[in-house]
Amino acid sequence: MVSKPFEPMTERPIRIFGDPVLKTPTDEIVVIDDKIRALVEDLVDSVKIPGRAGVAATQIGVGLRAFSYNVHGDIGYIINPRIVETRGELELVEEGCLSVPNLWFKTPRYPYAKVEGIDLDGNAVVLEGEGLMAQALQHECDHLDGLVYLDRLDQPTRKEAMRQVRESDWF
Fold first, then answer.
1. CA-closest candidate to residue 123, choices 64, 82, 63, 80
2. Is 140 known to be catalytic?
3. Which of 41, 116, 128, 140 is the catalytic position?
4. Taking the model in full, what pTM does it have?
5. Residues 169, 77: Cα–Cα separation, whole Å
6. pLDDT tens digits for 20-43?
7. How far apart are the first and last CA of the chain?
8. Alpha-carbon distances, residue 87 vs 29, 102, 134, 161, 167 (angstroms)
């Protein structure tokens, strides 16, 4: 669902690391109703802001399994996504997160990922890609499983990351 020209965009505030919703696995969406349509619209509106590759429902405080993405100008969403395939060797890639502002760390990610889910009409959706798309798919599915990218870091890097989180002005 796309905002009509006369309607204001509904960008939702992003929850920040430390908020329990970010560490809570999400529930499957079983009924697509007006509330779910509004959630998807808010997710899409929230990801349109420059510099955002994805927004998971948990990041806007909703414990349901859905996310939006904005990769190289391709904007969309998926409901009930599950990673069904990854390929290649894990690579360390620079990664950040809207919920962990201004901190970037090399995070292990597969170079290819494929997710399956549904759209608002209940039709099957397959999203797949390499590079930034693969990274975004893995990152957003992690959010829906109650993980943040800091959970993927090796122990020495995670220790440094947590030090920087504690010293940040937003924590």
1. 80
2. yes
3. 140
4. 0.92
5. 31
6. 999 999 999 999 999 999 999 999
7. 34
8. 28, 29, 10, 27, 36
